[in-house]
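Predict the structure of Phosphatidylglycerol--prolipoprotein diacylglyceryl transferase.
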Amino acid sequence: MIVGAMKKDGYLMTVMSIPSPPPEWGQFQLGPLTIHTYALCLIAGMIAATIYTQRRLSTRGAENGVVLDIVLWAIPLGIVGARFYHVLTHGEDYFYPGANLWDVFAIWDGGNALYGSLIGGAVGAFIGCRRTGIRLWSFADALAPAMLVAQAIGRLGNYFNHELFGLPTTLPWGLEILPTDTMFPQNLPAGTLFHPLFLYEIIWNVVGVAIILLLERRFNLRWGRAFGVYLIWYGLGRSWLEAIRIDPSSDAPLGIPANVWASFVAIGLGVLLIVVQSRRHPEPEASVYQTGREPKPTEAPAAEAGPAMRPADSLAGESDRSTAP
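Done. Here is the predicted structure for Phosphatidylglycerol--prolipoprotein diacylglyceryl transferase.
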């Protein structure tokens, strides 16, 4: 946060704000490659979520490394779903006369919808869980707080991309956006500050991690119920953030942005998941593996000296040798 001064009505006033990073911080060259900071934030979030999910599953009886076998399906399909959901809800940014249709695939420029990643990632997780034998709901419960960790880290990428900000504000933590930035609204004067939605969501997600962990200690949040809490928490936060976002997704019925409707759906699914699974599975979760897919215990290797001699055979041998001439 920086402190500056401005003159208004003849008075010198102190103004605090959050500066946007210089545009050159958004990418750098590594030999012939262009490395985008946004992509690094996404990758860091994925790595953190994978490690945290594996740790949670391991404490529940899963084999080490099993999460990698699942995320190898979930992450690619989640990225595809995130990008295409964004493109579909921001069609006017990609489909217009003279548009470069290759921009649809320019994921490094930002524009990845979390709800799209949930849809694509769920398909990938289903495939990965079927192949590894892990219960889908067990994986989802272990993933719930890890998803919020990944989203909090990933939102830093929006900061470096100068995106995901809200309506103008005079609050001391207002975000600075350069008037020359393509995201700056043309109808507002230079020096206007905006709500830092990326920061609001980071804080919301971190608090959500603490809430899920606290509820897990007090209640039986298994069989998908922890993931239900995640859907409710994230849906609530995203609905009010989208309401003050300055570049919302395309309007849907009743003039409400599509992402707000998606947030309402997420909240409803979270409540339904908790209610249904509480009735279907009031019992504790016995195993994170599907029935009959539990890993077999590793057998000790046979002795290299050959099969052990039975006691009776040993005694018989001694007796024979003792009576031999």
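The first strand starts at residue 2 and ends at 8.
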